[in-house]
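Review form for a predicted model. The reviewer records the input and the model, then writes brief findings.
Reviewer: anonymous (R2)
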Amino acid sequence: MAGPEKTASALPQNEAVQEAEVLPLLSPSLKGSCFDHPPHRGLLHPTRRCSSPTSAPTPKLSKKPKVDAARDMFPTDWSPPPVEFLNLRFTFGASESYVNSLDYLLQEKRDQALEREQVLLQHHPHLSSLDLDEVPLKPEHRMLVERFSVSLQVIPPVHPGETVFLPRRQPLHCLLDRSQLKPRSHLEELFVSCPLAQQLSFLRTGLLSNLYLHTPDCPVALLQWLFQLLTWPPETSSGAFSLLWDLSMDGLFHQSDGDKRWWCPSLQEVMETFHSLGAHSPALGREGPCQPSERVLKNDISLSLSQQQDSPPETALDSSLSYIYKFLALCALAQPAAYTDGELLNLIELLCRAGLDVGLRLLPKSDLQQLLLLLLENIHEWPGKLQQLCRTLSKVSDHHHNLLALVQFFLDVTPRSRQLRSQLSLVVIAQMLDQQETLPLWQEKAQLSSLSQLLSLMKPSSLRQYLGSETLPPCQRQQPKASAELDRKACYLCHSLLMLAGVVVSCQDITPDQWGELQLLCMQLDRHISTHIRESPQAMHRTRLKDLAAQTYIRWQELLAHCQPQAQYFSPWKD
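Model under review:
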């Protein structure tokens, strides 16, 4: 009888021992994790079997502990698994928290690279004084680099520009001409007699608008003073332009037929404004740079510039020029006969020079383009002045890309602008190729034939010889770097000339009798330019030039398709 009792009393102890053998041993580092939770026992030990509550005991199972199936599958202490693993911080014993972030990994990578570099320098001290850029390459390596290198010398998309406006630290102080002002009130007398700083406060606060707006006669001296203030910083020029525009529009609506009271600035006054902006171009005057008049003084008045807000020079210059262009456009519309033909030509030249300023290259030119269109329409003897205007504008710059940008100032929207674009482009091409005296550039209906002769001289190889004879001595023409630079300059010049040639053709009204001339131009383009360009990964400027030649050829072919040729071009061998 003692045997069964001993067996029965030892059963709980054996069950506890086997139960301890079944459970996994958890390391201290994983304490509190999701793996020590009761629902995961079956997942950690898939070979463990649970006894059925209805099955009969067998002799084989007498030595194994009986496991309660209900306790294993549905534990009484059920709770959701912990979510500590969602955090980015992991605790390793008593160490500090570690953030596994990208910045930390990058910094760790830099530290490792720095440590390796220091170790390398310790073992090889001579490497610290070695310049890797000056390490000579082996001949086979140099040939490989030269073969697969790509040149950064490309055709620039933006023209280089001209230095027209020099930066000014402070504007020229404008003195109001008081000799022509007759005060009609105490407030007006106060404005006339006060210094410049207080006069500007009258402008900013709107008192000048109350004094002179909607009055029968606005003083011309005040309009001249406001026009000069357009060259000041934007916080002053914006108010001056608004008041000048309102006063001019008010005088325009109140003037009668034949009334000459509406004021337009003279050519000399326009030159003074450009001089105040820092222009030093010879176009400011045939006799030299214009001198400021009595209204423009440099040291007569001391005005604190701390009141003027700093602004980028290009932005301030563009704002002032925009105000000047808009007001001159208003004058051209209101008084078409305010300027003579000679003054109009000089004014157009002055505006074109200003538009080529290097600081204004990337800024829009909409106000300038609109003004130029109006000034062209006000020229009385248009056919007679076209040749003079083209010759004058073709000498505004010596760079072919600048002259191309100048041609683009004139929009292709009016007959006069189209005629000027076409004629000026042809003159610039002939001037760049030194053929302006050998071709009939001014004959009517002879532009396409003249362009056909010029197109044969625009081959990159011919331009390279022409540029090499002018810029390089014979000993340097065969050097690799000099030869590559000369090739780039030739392609650059050919690119501008081809753009101008496209302007000449696009401004023409192709008639049936000109169909053959345009077809000859297409043949010349393909023969002298497209076939002479050898593309190379080391010369991307050739690829861009060849793309332009292909686009130009396609456009000219489209013009041929829309033009009905004469019958003689269909049967050239017909008697």
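Findings: Residues 1-71, 85-96, 282-310, 570-575 have pLDDT under 50 and may be disordered.
Further findings: The longest strand covers residues 89-90.
Recommendation: see findings above.
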